[in-house]
Amino acid sequence: TSLALQPVITPELLQGRVHLKCSYSRPSSSSPLRYAVVWSRLSTSGKKEQIRRDTTLQSSSYVEMNSVNLRLGDTVFCAVTAFMGDTPEQQSLPEESKGFYAGIKFLPESLQIAEDGKEHVLTILSTVPITCHGHDDSCKITLQLSTEDLGNRFLGPPNIALSACQVDLLQAPCSGGSCAAAALTVTAVTDFAQDGNRISRIRAEPIGRRDLLWRAYTPKDVKVTVRDLPTGNCYSFTDPHIITFDGWRYDNYKIGTFVLCQSTSRAFEVHVRQWDCGGHRAATACNCGVAAR
């Protein structure tokens, strides 16, 4: 039968090394039970691979993340069965834990933003403890951040801008699925071009680490979809004809300096200077200078 063992995987730092702990409930039984714990990981094809089998009297089992059997980026499971010591052939039904992702996570895992100037918070966290090596190591992981535009990446400016090029994940007690965390903001670049929705990705790469566990690991990229927003246009041309943002048309034959447009919500305005260009035949003016802030 099922004994409601409810196995759960949590990370721990033991003697300076990253371990995963499989904990399970001990049934209230007069007879002592033994437990068979099977550790497995998801392969690249999505199938579970057994990496270790442990038989113990304890209500927990440990496995080390040694970059051989278990690596950063793996999703790990533990399955537990219980049996009497004198009747090992009679076992309870196996109970499996939820998958534990060991590595760096981005929250949210993907972003959908628009060219509206808003800042979007992206949290980067490590689900495993940060180790310390030597006296010069400040118990942190430094991540180098970069962006890449997919599709028409050679047309126009970058799709997105980050508030930082590097972040540090500092060692902290593991709580709520996080053993270290940092945050940055992502903003869509307003390019004033009608170029449709565009896709970028954010990459984080650990730098400056000597230990193999982190040195050989590259976290999964974050996909960012930038939604294109329509851009307004106004015009002043020839002698000069004006077309406003809302499509109103008129002429301005005057000579002088004028405010062509001015924002009511931010420090943005355009001035235009018009000089006489009609001579004796017609009183017309032409744009001869522009200033913008």
From TrEMBL:
Pfam families in UniProt: Ig_VWDE
Keywords: Disulfide bond, Signal
MF term (GO), any: signaling receptor binding
PROSITE patterns: VWFD
InterPro entries: Dev_Signal_Modulators, Ig_VWDE, VWF_type-D
Domain VWFD: 232-293
GO CC terms in record: cell surface; extracellular region
Signal peptide interval: none
PANTHER family in the record: EGF-LIKE-DOMAIN, MULTIPLE 7, 8 (PTHR14949), VON WILLEBRAND FACTOR D AND EGF DOMAIN-CONTAINING PROTEIN (PTHR14949:SF52)
Name of the protein in question: VWDE protein
Organism: Trogon melanurus
Lineage: Eukaryota, Metazoa, Chordata, Craniata, Vertebrata
